[in-house]
Amino acid sequence: MLRQIEIKALLPRIEISLSQIRHNAQMLSEHYGRKGISLMGVSKATLGDPEIAKAMIQGGVKFIADSRIENIQKMRIAGISTQIVLLRTAFSQAEAVIKNVDISLNTELETVRELSNFAKIHNTLHQIIVMVEMGDLREGILPCDLPQFIKKTIDLPNIKVIGIGCNLACYGGVKPDNHNMYQLSELADALEKEFRIHLEIISGGNSANYEWSEAAQAVGRINNLRLGESILLGCETVNRKAIPGLYTSAFKLIAEVIESKEKPSLPFGEICQNAFGNVPTFLDRGIRRRIIIALGRQDILVSGLKPNKALEILGSSSDHVVLDSNNYDCQVGSEVEFNLDYGGLLSAMTSPFIAKQVIGNNH
Ligand SMILES: *Cc1c(COP(=O)(O)O)cnc(C)c1O
What we know:
Blueprint: E1 13-17, H1 18-33, E2 38-42, H2 50-59, E3 63-66, H3 69-77, E4 83-86, H4 94-100, E5 103-106, H5 109-121, E6 126-131, H6 146-153, E7 159-165, H7 178-195, E8 201-203, H8 210-215, E9 224-227, H9 229-233, E10 251-264, E11 287-294, E12 305-307, E13 312-316, E14 320-324, E15 335-340, H10 342-350, E16 355-359
Parallel strand pairs: 1-16, 2-3, 2-9, 3-4, 4-5, 5-6, 6-7, 7-8
Antiparallel strand pairs: 1-10, 10-11, 10-15, 11-14, 12-15, 13-14
């Protein structure tokens, strides 16, 4: 006989509101759609969760994009048949890319050749978007090397160059603006003319492109963006401001209070290094009610936790986060709730100790 273990609620857990994600995807699809810009819903922060991808699709995104082939395989197995885009292409994964992905972003000739080889073997046509370096210094081909790259790729068997794109505000923190977006448009025009091809997708960036799109009189040739954070957390990423009309707490992290006591705010005894090799300093605020939650650095990027109400994070170790409860009475066994920023979301979704609970359904 099975022994039943009663679990009141899974803790810690992340609660995911599908209806809020669907709403955000819909508002953004309409907003950008009015400017002629289609969307790729980026699923990587959710590890390619198929339910979340479906909510994005129902909201109107035209493509799903992810950086990891494993996440894409998971979505394919779950029956997602929307066009899927791979954001980061590795040479060694070329065959899996051909089998699972419709479109991949590329910057290396060797890799595109390998994709071509496997596309030929599997008798399919693989589409690529060529990424251009516009100053942020993550992935991209320098504009001066672009014609040569296109020349060498357009005639590769079973490969079709369907567009160009760029990525900003990720590594170098370079802002998408009229200047670099105009440059990308110009490059598209020039390549089409030189090689007599049509580039159907000009993918101008990510969640950092919101401000540019709001301010721009005309978006030029830019007709696509790849959005993760804007859809999931409802904000743009240049100033991390909430986008009007979007939900900013579709993801909530809930953890359990395991200690709640009044204690002095200054440690006593001789101070040495803490568990992470720092010598901490403290402010004396007298006796305070402090709580500890069953969550730590092994689970989450603690700086990515945004406490609600009066709680204030004082510090953390591998398995504990210590908070000042502002003298509110937080009982042992009770739950505390946090909003998450992107780093918090990414780490929480990746932690095997945090349960993922989807609220709502896809109908
Ligand atoms: C992660 C990623 C995105 C999505 O970025 P957000 O800031 O979450 O919108 C877009 N493009 C590429 C290439 C990415 O790797």
